[in-house]
Design brief:
This protein has 220 residues and is an alpha/beta fold. It contains eight helices and eight strands.
């Protein structure tokens, strides 16, 4: 892309984009499968980025017999390891440091308590001006609600902000589909899906490390 995107504000997804929580959830599913001695033939890695309900639905459609408490047990283990093992992706602090003088908000399918707590823990929150998280009023991605709400938060900070001067960072197909419905340029990172898949689903730019996105944007 020869012309740089002129950026005044940014919206970041959280899980899979800033922090590597999705690999920990996969680890929790595998651990629970081994502990309960069930679903041993399932490739849980192939479900990275999916919501728990979707994983449950797909496995049931495939004819798997899932114990009632399987996902509950996996969630308990996930909550335990996330406290100690959660890491940010390479390049995250570099890009946040470069963008620190513009308005940045997070748009996440996760609940706000978890996102703000983990943002504090990983020292991401100091770069953030707001959080747009999934709740009873805001539908989860692939719906655009979380991004549109994030844009409203940016407008409160700068009433003159235009969509063409905002950029969305995402890693998942659901996130890209939601972002595309807003008309805001979307940069995808190959943390969860490969380049072809991300372009196929509508990403405008794809990078293999988040700070490489700086090659495509100009802060104004």
């Amino acid at each position: 892309m020869s012309n740089h995107i002129k950026v005044k504000a940014a919206i970041f997804d959280f899980d899979g984009t800033l922090v590597d929580s999705e690999s920990l959830y996969t680890k929790a599913l595998i651990y629970t499968s081994n502990e309960m001695n069930v679903l041993k033939d399932v490739d849980f890695k192939s479900f990275a980025g999916y919501q728990t309900q979707d994983i449950d639905n797909i496995l049931k459609k495939e004819g798997h017999n899932i114990p009632d408490n399987f996902f509950k047990e996996a969630e308990i283990y996930f909550r335990k390891i996330i406290e100690t093992d959660l890491e940010t992706f390479e390049g995250v602090y570099e890009i946040l440091e470069k963008l620190k003088n513009i308005d940045i908000v997070i748009a996440s399918n996760s609940n706000i308590d978890y996102v703000t707590r983990m943002s504090d823990k990983k020292e991401i929150s100091k770069y953030m001006k707001g959080y747009s998280c999934h709740n009873e009023n805001l539908k989860a991605k692939p719906e655009p609600d979380l991004f549109l709400n994030a844009f409203e938060l940016l407008k409160k900070l700068n009433p003159n902000i235009q969509k063409e001067n905002v950029i969305i960072f995402e890693d998942s197909i659901a996130g890209i589909l939601g972002a595309k419905k807003t008309g805001i340029t979307t940069i995808a990172i190959t943390n969860t899906y490969d380049k072809e898949k991300l372009f196929e689903n509508g990403a405008d730019i794809v990078v293999d490390r988040i700070d490489k996105a700086l090659d495509y944007i100009e802060i104004i």
